[in-house]
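explain this:
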Amino acid sequence: MHDRECSICDNIAYAHIAGTPCTAYSTAGLMDAETAESYAHFLCWAGLRRKTQEPVIVQECTDGFPRSEFDKLLPMYAWSFAILDPITFGWPVRRRRQWCVYLGK
């Protein structure tokens, strides 16, 4: 430890990083989309992001989660998306995940 506060960027005071509920769009789940009970939890998460509008948001979910939901619920952000799988990095497991990132000004 260096006994100093760490930051990812000098001008960013706050970041939000989350893995939101994704069983509604997971092939391991029921694939019941917006009708799933867990979808309400995602809506709560999105509502908090609208309220707090952090300058950096990183969200992780199943690769089946529709990107259009971010534009619909959080139109104040311009998102970047990437699909990553641990096998790509040498881990002996397959679990494709969608990473959504917004880096504010």
About this structure: The mean pLDDT is 80. DSSP finds two helices and four strands in the chain.
